[in-house]
Structure formats: structure tokens, C-alpha cells
Amino acid sequence: MDLPRTADIVIIGGGVMGASAAYHLAKRGMKNILLLEKEEFFGTGATGRCAGGVRYQFSTEINVRLSLASLPMIECFKEEIEQDVNYRQCGYLLIATNEKDATTFQHNVELQNRLSVETELLSGEEVRARLPLMQFEDALAGTFNQKDGIVDPNSVVAGYIHAAQKLGVKALTRAEVTSVRIRGDEVEAVETSQSRIQTRNVLNAAGPWAGLIGEMARISIPIIPVRRQMFTTNPLKEIPENFPFVIDFAQSLYFHREGDGLLIGMSNQHEKPGFDQTVDEAFELENFEAALARLPLLGRARRASHWAGLYEVTPDAHPIFGGSPVKGFNICAGFSGHGFMHGPVAGKLMSEYILDGEFSTVDVSMLDLGRFKEERLIKEYNVV
Ligand SMILES: Cc1cc2nc3c(=O)[nH]c(=O)nc-3n(C[C@H](O)[C@H](O)[C@H](O)COP(=O)(O)OP(=O)(O)OC[C@H]3O[C@@H](n4cnc5c(N)ncnc54)[C@H](O)[C@@H]3O)c2cc1C
Question: Ligand 1 site: residues with CB under 6 angstroms?
Fold first, then answer.
């Protein structure tokens, strides 16, 4: 498909944010929406490489509120978007192995319960009873929410893209944005290697690459790409159907059922920022050894696949929503490794901001770009 010469908005990035925003803008009646994705397929950035976890369990009120708005949208996805996304509510079980985390977990559960999220606080003994296959002698506490779970990221992106296209959105792959043209202090055009598209509105939904898109418009956006990786195992018949999404919080080590096997990941706390998406085999071994210590039956498992992707990290581990000093340049990015689950509501919120000038579903006005300069940071503790 040829690129149009004009658009009412150009959305840069075809991950969950761009796809959701395109759909929600079109649903509200906006016309001439153009979505540009640099890769051959939509959803091959952070979204397609993520663990698919969705949860209510956060440490800040705004993140809990985003989950309260977004996860029900995923529950209704098939009804609204006509796409099955395989939402399995297996629950997240977060485990604290030191006093600091145990105390914070208690505060988190109080906050979540106050917001009507029914997360349970567990003792170390209760954690061990729920995970008979695992070694958690050092567990001091745990938190569990049955409504947390796993969703298929590719289906969410494909669902939104198809639904957006049906509403008239032009969504193109192999279309890399190479520059954003500014006249005075307003967006004037977006360029790819093939053409120039006249537009007054841009939505930067480029995930880990959002800082680079900001540079094109001479806007400083503090989003840093950081590699994260995981592997899956062959089928393990011992793992029960209802095995939860287990997080050994202090090690950022996690396990969840993937097919008949497990998906296992761990965050390398020494990873340097960068765009490298190859698997670090030495760290994978560290990850495997940490996992084996927790789940001895992995001694009999084989690796089935592995991959790496990029977290899009902001200084306070919260996303950036809204405008910028350049008129018409909007941002929806920087979800810091837990954005897939907030993609549905994030796209809806950006449609509200772009069409109405304010957020109505959830007030995310405090998550603006200006907060970094003005030191209004809101720190999230539950980062994996
Ligand atoms: C290993 C890993 C595990 C994760 N696990 C979870 C999890 O369990 N749960 C959860 O909620 N989140 C998780 N996340 C985080 C989640 O994946 C992201 O927060 C979310 O997918 C971000 O979506 P996005 O649309 O902003 O970015 P992306 O999906 O990266 O989309 C941005 C798109 O922009 C495109 N692009 C970039 N530059 C240009 C350009 N110049 N022109 C055109 N297109 C461009 C990219 O190719 C990309 O497709 C995980 C992330 C990783 C890496």
C-alpha cells in the first residue's frame, strides 16, 4: 500500500500502544489515521517478546487504577474486538524473602484492598503450601490475586490492528519513520525513507525506541532501552494446570506455565542500557541456576526456546502520557516492563487526550512528560 501524502494523525509504532490507540481513535470517529511500523510485522517489538503477564498487583494507586480499567477490557476483548486473546486467570504469586519486601507487600495489599482489589497476604508457610514443587524455605510472605494471569500479546495486537483497519485506519509495516518535521513549535510532517506525510499530529508509541523519536523532534524523553530475556522448557507433566505466575521478588525471577511447559525469566540487574536484542547466554545460565534452586525438577527439563526484548524504562517506572512542548507531538510510552497489560486502556486514554484534551477514563495527568524536570516522580516498587 502506498503511503498517503497527508494524515490527521500519524501513530509511530505498531506495538500494543500504537494498535490500541489507532483502534480507539477510529472508534471515536477520527478519520485519516495512519499507523507506521518499521518492522515486517506488527507487534514484534517489546509487545511480541513480553511474558504476557497481566496483574492488579502494583504498589502505586495510579498503576492499580490503570489495571482496574485495562484488565476488564481484556476480559471483554473477544466480545468487543472479535479476537480470542486466551486470558488465563492463574493468579500472580509474589514472594518476599526479606523483611523490607515483606513489609512493602503488606502496604501494597492494604492499598490494593482499599481500591477493591482482592489481593491476599500470605505467610511464608502459606506460600510453601501453595507451591509444593518449589523450594521456598526462605519465604517470609507472599501476595496472591486470582484475577491476575496471562494473555497472548500477539492476539491483542492483531485484534486491535484488524479492528482499526475495519474502521478505516491505514496501518502499514516496513514503514520506518526517519524524521519528524517541526515548524515553529508545531508538528508539520513525518518522513519515512519513501515519502513525506503532512500532518499536525503525531503519537509517539515507539516503546523502547520512543526516545529516538523524541530526538527527531528535539524533545528529550527519558526512556531507556534495557534488555530482558527468558526461556521456555519442554512439557513438564508435574506442573499443574493451575500453576500461578510465581515471582521470586528479590531475584526478579519468574515462572509461569507456557503450553505444557514453563516460561522462566529473570531481570539482569547489571544490564547496561542499549538496543541489543540477542540472548546473553552467560546470563541465561545464571537464570537457569537460580530457577533450578527454586524448582529442582528443572534438572530434567530441556530448553525449548529463548529470546530477548527491551524494557522501556523511565526514571520512576511509570509511563508517559500526553503532550509535549511541541504542539501536536503526543507520547504514550515508557511503561517500564509492565505495559502490555495497560495497553488497552492506554490507547483509550490517548484517544481521549487527543480528541478531548483531557483524560476521562483514568486521570493520568500526573504522568506527563513535565514531571521529570519538575521532580514529581511517583516510584513503582513492583517492577520485575
Ligand atoms: C522480556 C519482556 C517481558 C515483559 N513482560 C511483560 C509482562 O509480563 N506483562 C506486561 O504487561 N508487560 C511486559 N513487558 C513490557 C511490555 O512488553 C511493554 O511495556 C509493552 O509491550 C510496550 O508496548 P509498546 O507498544 O509501547 O512498545 P513496542 O511493542 O516495542 O512497540 C513499539 C513499536 O514501535 C516500532 N518502531 C520503533 N521505531 C520506529 C520508527 N522509527 N518507525 C516506525 N516504527 C518504529 C517498533 O518496531 C515497535 O514495534 C515485558 C517486556 C519485555 C521486553
Answer: 12-18, 36-39, 44-47, 49-53, 176-177, 205-209, 228, 230, 309-312, 333, 335, 337-341
